[in-house]
Request: fold
Amino acid sequence: MISSLVLEKAHTAGLTVTGLTFNSQEVRPGFVFFALKGAHVDGNQFIPDAIKKGAILIVSAQPKPDTCTIPFYQSDDIDRDMADAAYIFYGKPSDDMCMWGVTGTKGKTSIAYLLESVLTQAGQRVGALGTVNYRSAGKKICDAPNTTPAALSLFKLLAQMKEEKCQSVVMEVSSHSLELQRVRHIWYDTAIFTNLQRDHLDFHLTFENYFKAKCKLFENLADPHNPKQNRVAVINTDDEYGKRLVDLFKNRVKIVTFGVEHSADFTATNIQESLTGTSFAVNGVPAKINLLGRHNVYNALAAWAAAACKGIKTDDIVRGLAALPGVPGRMERIYEADNFFAFVDFAYTNESLERAFATVAPFKKNRVFVVFGCGGQRDRTKRPLMGRTACEKADFVFLTNDNPRCEDPKQIFADILKGMDGFSNYEVIPDRAEAIRRALATAQAQDIVIVAGKGHENYQLVGTEKRHFSDQETIRQFLQEK
Reply:
C-alpha cells in the first residue's frame, strides 16, 4: 500500500490539499509548497511568499524556520516525498496507461518521436514527454524545461494525458530523473536502451555511476511489484553497455534485442543513406525514414522492436516510421539551395559531433563547415575532445558560445582550444549569431554547414539570463536577407 507522509500530515492537521508545487509563484490557497534547495536558488527563502499566497503546508529538507507560521513537515528525502504525494494526489494516472520509457545517452528523442508516430498510425492516442516538448494526442502542451519533468509536474501532465484519453505515453527517461526519483511509482510496460556514451559526468562523477543510474529503469521493469503485463526490455546489443544490461536482467524480465553489426532479434540490413532520408530492411521487411544517418537506423529499430512486442502490426510500423517528417534539432535540414546544405544538430558531446560528421561524410562534394561551442557549468572533460574532433573532421571550424550560463566563456574556449592545439582551421567568434552568419556567408556551391550543440533550443543561457535565440531562425533570417 503506497502512502504519502506529506498528504497524511495534511490530513491529520485537518487540511484540504488543492495543489502541489515547488514554485512559489504557482502557490494558490490550499497548496502544499515544497521548498527545494537547488544548486542556484534555495526555495526555503520563498516560504514567507508561499504562505502569503495561501499555502497550507510547507515541506522542506531544512528545519522549520522562524518565518513559517503554518504546518511544516521536515522531510528526510524530499525527492521521494514529492513523488509519493504527486502519485496519490493526481490519482495514480500512469497505472492506467501503457508506459514506454526510453533511456540512453543518444537517440532518446528520435526514438520517442518515431514510436509516437508508429503508435498514432496504429490508431492510438499518445502522450509524449521528452527533451523538445511535452505533447498529448498530437498537440503540444508546452516546451520542455527538463527531458523528464520533476515528479510534481510529471504526474500532473500524466493526469492530463489520462483525462484526454491517451492509451500510451512515450517518455524519455533521463539519468537525472532516475537518480532524483522523478519517475518513482511509474510502472513501465516497456523500457528501451539506446547506448551509453560520455555525458553528465559533472552530475554522476564516474561512468559506472552513470550506467547504474540507467539500470534503474530496468530495475523498475523487472520489479516483482510491477503490475504491468507483458513487460519487455528492448536493448541495443551493438552497444557494450547494452550487452551488460542483457546479462544483468536476462533472468528477470523478457528481453528483445536490436542491432546492425551483430545478430539480434531485430536486425537492419541493406542500409541506404542520402541527405534526404534513409532506407533499410528489418528482418527482411523494407522500410524508410526521413531521418539522416546510420544512427537513426538504430533509433528506428528500437521503435520497431518495441512496437512489435506490443502487437502493433508490421504495416502500421512501416507506415508510422515513414510518416515522421523529422525531429526538431536532430540533423534538421534547414535550407537546401545553391547546392549547399545547412543542418542544425543537437550534438553537444564528442561522440554526437563525430556522428554528425559521419552522417554527411559520404555525400561530401566540397567543404564541411561546423559552428559549435560547449555549455558552461557542465562536464569540462569533453571540451578538448570536441575541439580536436571538430578540427579533424571539418574543413573549417567556427568556435562560438553555446549556453555559457554562469561560467566565464573565456574559460570554456580555453578548455576547447586545448584539443585544437596544432590546428589552424578555426576561428573564435564568441557571438553565436555572427558565427552562424559567417559560416553561411563563407559557404559556396556543394558545401555543407553543420550548426551543432543547441538543436531544438530556442534560447541561450548567458549568466542568469535566458535570452531568445534559435539556430534555425538565425539561419533562415540570413538566407532571406541574402
Observations:
- The chain has three domains: 5-88, 91-323, 332-481.
- DSSP finds 16 helices and 23 strands in the chain.
- The chain has a mean pLDDT of 94.
- The first helix runs from residue 5 to 12.
